[in-house]
Design goal:
seven-stranded mixed beta sheet, 41% helix, alpha/beta, 7 helices, single chain, Rossmann fold, disordered C terminus
Length: 212
């Protein structure tokens, strides 16, 4: 569905309502600076088929629907039941409800059951599982697919040189492993955008999948 001026006008109050809901219920959504990078990335890729890990309340889902190709289709996965219910409500009130397929459950368990190919992937789920998720969805990536992973710098801890607090250590190590993997994997190019909490933009440039 093309994002016409009429649809933009229809979506604007819904997105503002979602922003207020997120603030009131302490639900993380794309920050303003991250939103700019994210929107630029989606518009440049103009994806037809999107995989989203971490629906939240559906904010980024609807942003992708608005900025994707005219025939965009989105498969989105969320493990938090309350957020999934909120997302169903918001998405159900949007003009994009029929092009969004929602799945409730653990992305690590659901990815193996998904079919088809995706030319855009957005990860905003369990940060410690990014590397594992990538390995699972890699066979589903189309040629020249783009993968955007949010919060990869994790409040600056990932780039910190000093000692990491114990409760943050495991998460930081997993994110460092993910960044190391995607920046050295043959057939892919990665840029880390440091705006906000950090977003890794990975582009598939090879023609054959390589093992991580």
């Amino acid at each position: 569905m093309a994002c016409t001026e009429a649809i933009k006008r229809e979506m604007e109050p819904l997105l503002r309502e979602m922003e207020r809901y997120a603030e009131a219920h302490y639900v993380p959504i794309l920050r303003a600076r991250e939103r700019r990078i994210f929107c630029e990335t989606v518009m440049e890729a103009c994806p037809h088929r999107i995989l989203e890990l971490g629906t939240g309340i559906g904010y980024s889902t609807l942003v992708q629907a608005m900025l994707g190709a005219e025939d965009v289709r989105i498969v989105t996965v969320e493990i938090n039941e309350a957020r999934m219910e909120a997302a169903k409500g918001f998405i159900g009130r949007s003009p994009y409800r029929d092009c969004i397929e929602m799945h409730f459950g653990d992305a690590g368990e659901l990815l193996s059951s998904l079919g088809g190919t995706f030319d855009f992937v957005f990860m905003d789920a369990a940060k410690g599982q990014y590397a594992n998720y990538f390995r699972l969805f890699q066979p589903l990536l189309a040629e020249q697919a783009v993968i955007a992973a949010d919060n990869v710098l994790f409040h600056g801890y990932v780039q910190a040189k000093g000692k990491i607090p114990h409760k943050r250590r495991s998460m930081v190590q997993h994110l460092r492993e993910y960044i190391e993997m995607i920046t050295h994997m043959e057939g892919y190019e990665t840029v880390i955008r440091e705006d906000g909490d950090g977003m890794a933009i990975t582009r598939r440039v090879g023609h054959e999948h390589e093992k991580a």
